[in-house]
Fold this sequence. Notes:
Residues 39-145 form the Ig-like domain. Strands 3-11-10-5-6-7 form a six-stranded mixed beta sheet, with helices on one face.
Amino acid sequence: QMRGPKSGQCKKNKHDSRPICNSRAMSDIAVHLLTRPSPSFSPSGNKRVSVTVGNSSVLTCPPKSNRTMVTWKISPRVGGPCTLGYRTDQNKTDRTNCSDSMNWKFRPDQDPALEIRQVEIAHEGNYICEVVSTEGNFHTTYHLTVLVPPRLTLYCDDHGNPVCEAVAGKPAARISWVLESSFTPREEGHDNGTVTVVSKFTAYSSNVTNTTCFVSHPAGNQSNSIVCLCTGGFVGSGFGFDRNSICVSETSFITDFPFC
Length: 260
C-alpha cells in the first residue's frame, strides 16, 4: 500500500528532480522562521547604519535569487520586537507588531528591502533580514543608529562672556571656538538619549569682542558669531540690574548685564 510522506518529509517526483513536500511541513517551517532565530543561517555581514531623525532609511536583504521565504526580525530600542515575513509559494506577506512606519519598500517578491519612514529615536536597534533560497539560508544584520542634530544657541552671560550651547543632540556634539580661549564644556543628558553641551568662552585677551562658536556633529556642522561688548552706561530698569555697565550682543541688540 502506497503511503504519502509524513509531516516534515518529502518524496521525489518521477518526472521532476525537485522534491514534493507535505504542505503541513512547509507551514511548520514558516512558523519556525517567523517566531524563532535560526542558527543554521549563514551570515552575509553585520552592518552599522546611521540615519538622521526625520529622514527615511532603506535596508536591503542578501541578494539571493530563487528566494522561497524572507523574514525581517526587528528589535527596536523602544517597544517590543516585530516581524515582517513573505512566502513565495503562497505569495503572502505577514506582519506582527510592526508600526505603520515600517514596511516593504517594493513588492517583496521582487525586492524584499525594508523601508523605515520618518525615522525616530525609538527606531534605533537591530534589524535582521533572513532569506531562505535554493542556494541556502542567509541573513544580514543591521545596527541602526539615529542621529539628532543639536540646536545651536549663542548668547552673552551676566559677565559678558559668550556662551555656546548645542542643545539636545545625539550623540553629544563637540564645541570649539575660532579664537584661543579657556573653556570647559559641560554636558547634560536627557531621558530620550540626547545630550546638551554648554561651553563658555573666556578670552586670554581682554580686547576680544567678536567670537565664533563651531559645533561639530555627525548630522552636520554649524557655526555662529556674537559680539559681547561691555561699555559704561545705564542698565535698563526693567532688568533690575546695576547702573555700571551695558553689554551689547550682535543677536539681541542691547543686552543688559550687571558685571561685564
